[in-house]
Amino acid sequence: MLTLSRWKVTAVILSVIFGIVFTLPNLLPQKTLDALPGWVPHQKLNLGLDLQGGSYLLYEVDTDALRAERLTNMVEDVRTTLRNDQIEFGELGEAGGIVRVRITDPGKVDQAVSLLRRSIGGPLAGAIGGRDTNISNRGDGRLELSFVPEAAKADAAKAVDQSIETIRRRVDAMGTKEPTITRQGVNRIVIQAAGESDPARLQAVIGQTAKLTFQMVDETVTPEDMAAGRIPPGVMVIPSAEAGRPPIPVAKRALVTGEDLVDANQTFDQNGAAAVGFRFGGSGARKFGDATTRNVGKRFAIVLDNKYISDPRINQPLPGGSGIITGNFTPESAAELALLLRSGALPAKLNLEEQRTVGAELGADAVRAGTISLAIGAAAMFVFIILAYGLFGTFAAIALFVNVLLIVGIMSMTQATLTFPGIAGLILTLAVAVDANVLIYERMRDEAAAGRSPMSAADTGYRRALVSIMDANITSVISALIMFSMGAGPVKGFAWTLLIGVFTSLFTAILITQVLIGWWFKAAKPKKLPIA
């Protein structure tokens, strides 16, 4: 194993160059770094919330509201489906998570059940041929519809996943660098935005559902009807987003939703007032064009989070699928709304459960403490290995130094986030690397004591210690992967640093020390090992 093959020497030289080149940006002032040519790596380590300071937000996805919305949609689906097939019904409503309807004509009960089973709900994820709704006949023409328990769990999980992706797009669009957005438990989401010291700014963008719908205004309902509560089925009353404007009655079913939007931007209307331009694509443009063609002369409401922004009259068809939203906007609020619409609506409301701000001075203290602890730990290991093994200990110390360069270089190149627990992982990695060298050198001592020549003892020491080293590092890799896949925040940062460190430690503790010892054997031609 101690043969100085060309590939070993090349690998060691390239690894040292890589470590220096990608670690150097972290040591240079920003002005010096900006002055370097473009081909020189400029990536620095991203410091986590605990090291740099920033904002911490904990949200809970309101899955109960999501379920209530789905039940409301089921009621409207039942109404529309039965009306389209001219099946008379009554007593349609929802209570206790169950939608109930009574079919007036006893002869059409079976037809209604068959029709609703085909039309209501959808396939159940993970169940071949299964559907997410139950439809049962209770006799006397009374039908009950409900979601199966698995559907509620699937909806909640999907809502959390969609919320995470939507939040990520929104935060990225704000220019916040490397936010950490993770699931906590079943329906909670943690957002850590390092360097973002204004959590209110994050909340304004993250917490707004931004659910955009276009709904027809029901002009048959008068203000007197609304005051008296005479609201026909399929219609609801919504308030205005602008103070002082009266509520209006709109159809519960939306003509088009914001899910079909492909672009939104801040613009100005014909009067020079700030507005939001929007554009539908594909099927959304066709639906919008068809809806405006069928309803020329009627009003439709542009609704955001169950409040209408404006209720213009459709003067002519809009087949292009684009238009503008006017309202009491400033350029800033129009730009913010456009950002929310571009990033997509949240599938459910988010409730803020916890908010923390970590000051930059606390982060600086953490960086200082981490740097000192790393320096003390590294120095202690260097002193130990050199005192214990002399020249070979010096070779191990050099390998440890290259190990640090490689870890920092890889984390800088991949733009990984370094947290305070990550620094602990780095220190642990160095200890494991030293342990590998201790195993190798102690095995060399045993082989030399057994009468082997220096070269044979060193070579056998590497070969026989390698089995134990691989066993120990494989268990470390498994532990790191489990922590990385199941942990969140600091735990994940620790696991990522540890995972990188395992591979760099194997490389440096085995290959680099091999090359250094091989060179020493070639130059000194020793009669005995310096550690015997």
The tally of strands reads 19
CATH H-level superfamily of the largest domain = Multidrug efflux transporter AcrB transmembrane domain
- Average pLDDT metric: 82
How are the strands ordered across the major sheet? 7-8-2-18
Query: Major sheet: size, sense and barrel closure?
Result: 4 strands, antiparallel
Radius of gyration over all CA atoms, rounded: 33 Å
Task: Count the DSSP helices.
Answer: 14
Write the layout of secondary structure elements.
Elements: H1 6-23, H2 30-35, E1 46-47, H3 49-52, E2 54-61, H4 63-84, E3 89-95, E4 98-103, H5 109-119, E5 133-137, E6 142-147, H6 149-173, E7 180-184, E8 188-194, H7 199-206, E9 212-216, H8 223-228, E10 235-238, E11 248-251, E12 256-257, E13 261-268, E14 274-280, H9 283-294, E15 300-304, E16 307-310, E17 322-325, H10 331-343, E18 350-358, H11 360-413, E19 417-418, H12 420-449, H13 454-486, H14 490-524
Parallel strand pairs: 1-19
Antiparallel strand pairs: 2-8, 2-18, 3-4, 4-6, 5-6, 7-8, 9-12, 9-15, 10-11, 13-14, 14-17, 15-16
Helix pairs in contact: 1-11, 4-5, 11-12, 11-14, 12-13, 12-14, 13-14
